[in-house]
Amino acid sequence: MVMAMAATANVAASALLPCCHSTRSIPLSRTFLAPLLLSPVALGRIVAIDAIATTHTPLCTIMTQEFLGYTLRSCRLFLKGPPSICGDETHWMLRRKTIMNESRVRHLYSLGRALTRKGIFLQDTNQKTRMQSISALVETTKEDSTGFTTFSNDGNEIRRRFLEFFALRGHIVLPGSSLVPNDPTVLLTIAGMLQFKPVFLGQVPRQVPRATTSQKCLRTNDVENVGRTARHHTFFEMLGNFSFGDYFKQDAIRWAWELAIDEFKLPVERVWVSVFEDDDEAMKIWRDEIGMPEERIKRMGKDDNFWASGPTGPCGPCSEMYYDFHPEEGTVTADLGDDSRFLEFYNLVFMQFNRKDDGSLELLKQKNIDTGLGLERMARILQNVPNNYETDLIFPIIRCAAKLAGVNYEAADDRSKRLLKVIGDHSRAVVYLISDGVSPSNLGRGYIVRRLIRRVVRMGRLLGIRGDGKGNLEGTFLPTLAKVAVGMSTEIDPDVKHNASRIYQELHGEELKFVQTLERGEKLLEQLLEEAVASEKGTSKPSLAGKGVFMLYDTYGYPIELTEEVAAERGVSIDLEGFEAEMEGQRKQSQAAHNVVKLSLGGAAAELSTMIPETEFLGYTALESDSFVSALLCKGVSILEAHAGDEVEVVLDRTPFYAESGGQIGDRGLLVTGGNTQGEVSSILQVLDVQKAGGSLFLHKSVVQQGKVAIGMKVKALVETTLRKSVQNHHTATHLLQAALKRVLGSEVSQAGSLVAFDRLRFDFNFSRPMTDMEIAQVENFINEWISLAVPLDWQIMPLLEAKKAGAIAMFGEKYGERVRVVNVPGISLELCGGTHVNNTSEIRGFKVISEQGIASGIRRIEAVAGSAYIDYVNARDNIVKQLISTLKVKADDLPSRITGLLEETRLAKSEAANLRAEVACAKVEALADSALIVGPANARVLSTSLGDVDPESLKLAAEHMLKLLGDPAAIILGSCTRGDKVSFVAAFSQKVVEHGLQAGNFVSKIARLCGGGGGGRPNFAQAGGKHPEKLTDALDQARDELKNALLHCSE
Questions:
Q1: How many other CB atoms sit within 10 Å of the CB of residue 538?
Q2: Over the chain, what is the mean pLDDT?
Q3: CB 830 within 8 A of CB 824
Q4: How far, in Å, are 44, 1000, 1040, 1043 from residue 1046 at the CA level?
Q5: Residues 6 or more apart from 844 whose CB is under 8 A from it?
Q6: Radius of gyration (Cα) for the chain, nearest Å?
Q7: Could you give the CA distance from residue 110 to residue 147 in angstroms, rounded to a whole number?
Q8: Quick check: helix, strand or coil at residue 558?
Q9: What are the DSSP calls for 449-490, one per residue?
Q10: Could you give the 3-state DSSP secondary structure of residue 236?
Q11: Rounded alpha-carbon distances, angstroms, from residue 519 to 453, 472, 488, 515, 526
């Protein structure tokens, strides 16, 4: 089809040649474009014709496969053709060997991209409509005074231009990875190079020699600077080009310069660069080959311009590009660290050394390039705005927040602008985090989401946003902001829109809970202020301790500014130094926790991954194989052989054993060696687990039960068949479970973790509430019906992008290569998965949910059984039912009503027993009424005594009863010690005692601390506990004395 259209275009092109040679007064790209644009190939012909008209060059000079390859790429047609079309020769024009008018090509290049974005070639089959669309685009595509097409400087266009720039230079455009990395050394994806870390380490072979990506990243180590500076963010996009042992400094520097100057049109005089102080090679390239004036090249030390992942491992010098906002200030006193003048926008890392344990550097065999260009920073430069926040990447969110707050951003003061910037930044961050499966919680990534959400809510409240900001005080405003961020997400991460309903739901629930927390913080602040005023000494002004202020800020999300305002109204100052000390401690913890990408693998496994071939996995089709031992490890050290009783990790050249990944645990089985004609074996190793090392080596964790094993020895690898079948049942059942949940609960349900074991499966998913019994039954019914239909499974290997377009679901937390394995249960489930599965759903036999529970905010967990584990589960439950029938002497159908009756009888019996215990406690305390002290002129009654072995509830009732008997004023402290050495306290104060200034909560908490416990409650009634019964008597005596003295003092 394409060749036919190309032929048509070529004929038309030939017909135009006389006109092309005879005149240049009519721009042919506009005159003849509409009738000829039948395909991307035809556009290539038009570019060639237009070039001929410009240069009077013969057709044979232009019409080469190389140029056709370039023009096809100009149309953004993704090619995987032969090297003659897509190889390095496609770059000849960019190396300025072309003889055509470059401005004309660039104009048509822009037009081709616009046509493709409009979907004219791919979607619009109506000829008339297509021609109208093309004509309209031709008229609206303008050229500037230099003859070059004027490109849009919006963020999406900058991203596209970067990726296309490097695609035209032989880089494969790879998709960015999730914010949840497949790397235990970091919590979140914090750099564009993170997905390539195994390649840089040599753990996995490179799939491509050079690549380019747009990677969403998130860092929180500088969260307090967000909104305060022009460039700090939590969420940001890093555009990068990478070389894996391919090109190095010269090309990296040259292309960085061409990108900045030729593509993005940055004024040459505004660009500065820095190089490492000892990197003469980079200095020479910038100065002599690029032509950068030496006064705008700064040599800088290792703190600024030498990249290292850690004390050992890959490292190398950097070269950074800066934009000068004030070139009029000259070069003599220029300081690249001056944020008010310079902005670093592009960092080139030349990964050329390996730092050894002794600190010395050795050249890497494979030199790599790792670069990063901050999209927000380049947008700031090209859009000519004062800070990153006012670019089109963030400002629409800020504008929405300002509207909700009733604030005019342009006229707002600096404080309001700062709060709005924080809202804009953090709103983007939480939208993408939640989309990638991170839900708010108090642990790990979940805590980061929760903290960012709380900061947005705090900033909103400081701006005056209440409720949804539209008049509904019971509503929430975060979903409104999120809708703006989701609407801007298409070219960053298309999955965000698919996850939109879940994002809005998570934000709504979390905001409501946090508003309640804020209100509790207000109560705590009131209590702290009362204590500060009460503790005022002499003429010193009362002050809130920094620790208390920090607790309000960190635990309750109470803004420090609001704390200052409320405290000032009460005449209380704030210990800001103490607060800053607490904040600094938290910052150090945050910065130390996973904010550096560490390129180190340590130990023998690191060496093995570079010395021996990767393990070939045979386990999809075989459960046994003849293999050779490639390596042996014992306690992390390489060894040559192991003997009976040794625990050893065996690396084979090929294996049927599945290594743990994707939630599926590793296989178990045997490795046997040797043998004779009678079938006896000389060595037996029991395989207990299989793990991956370096992404490609399978470590068979084994115990030598008999004989020995040595490197080079031939072994027969035997997977335990029964266990493999069990895990396959559970893995396929997990896919069916996800499909069933989407049908029952909604398509927005997505996986948040899984475990596929021999005896059960565990599936975590995003959902905001517990499932009902009916919903669980529906899920079970779906799965068991699919099992009964005996659906055959199939799988195939395909490109990742093709798999995603087909609707394949990616497994949570997994990292995928360019080509992936897709497991298909036709009509039911399609998932990216490297695990092992049944051949037919009928092999699963049955499925049953064991439990469904919440494990974090917005995260539910299902545990279930399938296959033989399902049969065992059903049989075990059947035996229990038979035992109950025998014990209760009822039929199976009558069991529910009989058990309900027994429970009711038990409840009544417990209630009667509790009433009796309470009556006994009240009787005990009545007998002690006469022993109450009478204190002061007000005749206050004070009773502090132990009731012995009395439970807390009875102790509470006894205190209430005694308070009524003694009247007002009265103060009662009762203690008890139940079996198990648990101490209980109750404090009951009458109204007049409270008015005297005594509070039961504070008082009993202090007394309980004497017994190693604590507690609290209301001013008139409180409870506490302790764990040192031997100190109970002393504590009650002290309570009596303190109450006596306090009431005497208050009476005066």
A1: 4
A2: 80
A3: yes
A4: 95, 13, 10, 5
A5: 729, 732, 733, 736, 787, 838, 866, 867, 870
A6: 36
A7: 13
A8: coil
A9: HHHHHHHHHHHHHHTT--TTSSS-TTS-SHHHHHHHHHHT-T
A10: strand
A11: 16, 18, 33, 6, 11
Tokens 């074991």 found at: 757
| Start-to-end C-alpha separation, the chain | 105
Helical spans, DSSP H, in 556-641? 560-569, 576-592, 603-611
Got the DSSP string for 846-877? -EEEEEEEEEETTEEEEEEEETHHHHHHHHHH
Per-residue buried b or exposed e for 161-196, using 16+ beta carbons within 10 Å of the residue's own CB: bbbbbbbbbbbeebebbbbbbbbeebbbbbbbbbbb
Answer for the pair 661, 816: CB distance below 8 angstroms, yes or no.
Answer: no
Region 949-968: what's the mean pLDDT?
A: 86
Confidence of residue 307 (pLDDT cuts 50, 70, 90): confident
Most confident of 354-358, 530-534, 769-773: 769-773
pLDDT at 187: 83
Is there a cis peptide before residue 969, judged by omega within 30 degrees of 0? yes
Phi-psi label, residue 645: left if phi above 0, alpha if psi -120 to 50, beta otherwise: left
CA–CA separation, 985 and 1005 (whole Å)? 9
Q: State pLDDT tens for residues 709-736.
A: 999 999 999 999 999 999 999 999 999 9
- Tens digits of residue pLDDT in 204-222: 778 889 999 999 999 887 7
Q: Residue 107 carries which side chain, given as an amino acid letter?
A: H
Count of H-run helices and E-run strands, the chain:
34, 35
- Residues with Cβ within 8 Å of 28's Cβ and at least 6 positions away in sequence, in order, are 16, 19, 20, 46, 49, 50, 53
Does residue 466 contact residue 473 with C-beta atoms inside 8 Å? yes
Q: Is 528 helix (H, G, I), strand (E, B) or coil?
A: helix
Cβ within 8 Å of residue 826, ≥6 positions away: 791, 792, 794
pLDDT over 60 at 22, yes or no: no
More confident residue, 12 or 889: 889
H or E element that contains 510: helix 500-534
- pLDDT tens, position by position, 495-543: 899 899 999 999 999 999 888 877 778 788 888 888 887 776 555 678 8
Check: CB of residue 48 under 8 Å from CB of residue 13: yes
409 CB-contact burial (10 Å; exposed 0-12 / middle 13-18 / buried 19+): middle
Pick the closest to residue 347 from 261, 263, 269, 256 (CA basis).
Answer: 256
The first and second tokens of residue 672, run together, are 């046997």
Residue 260 DSSP one-character state: I
Name the pairing type of β-strands 940-946 and 970-978: parallel
Alpha carbons 500 and 1020: distance in angstroms, whole number: 49
Give the separation between CA 192 and CA 210, rounded to whole angstroms.
14
**Residue the block writes with tokens 């027969």:** 716
Mean pLDDT, rounded, for 636-658: 93
Query: What are the backbone dihedrals phi and psi of residue 279, each rounded to the nearest 5 degrees, phi first?
Result: -90, 80
Alpha-carbon distances of 621 from 82, 624, 757, rounded to whole Å: 33, 9, 20
- Contacts made by residues 529-534, CB under 8 angstroms, sequence distance 24+: 529/566, 529/567, 529/570, 529/572, 532/572, 533/570, 533/571, 533/572
> What letters, b where the CB count within 10 A reaches 16 and e where it falls short, cover 714-751?
ebebbbbeebbbbbbbbbbbbbbbbbbbbebbeebbbb
C-beta neighbour count of 697 within 10 angstroms: 23
Q: What residue has token string 């230079």? A: 169
Tell me the C-alpha distance between 996 and 178, whole Å: 61
| CA-closest candidate to residue 559, choices 532, 531, 584, 579 | 579
Query: Residue 855: what residue type?
Result: I
Which residues share a beta bridge with 316? Answer: 307
Q: What angle do CA 660, 663, 667 make, to 5 degrees?
A: 35
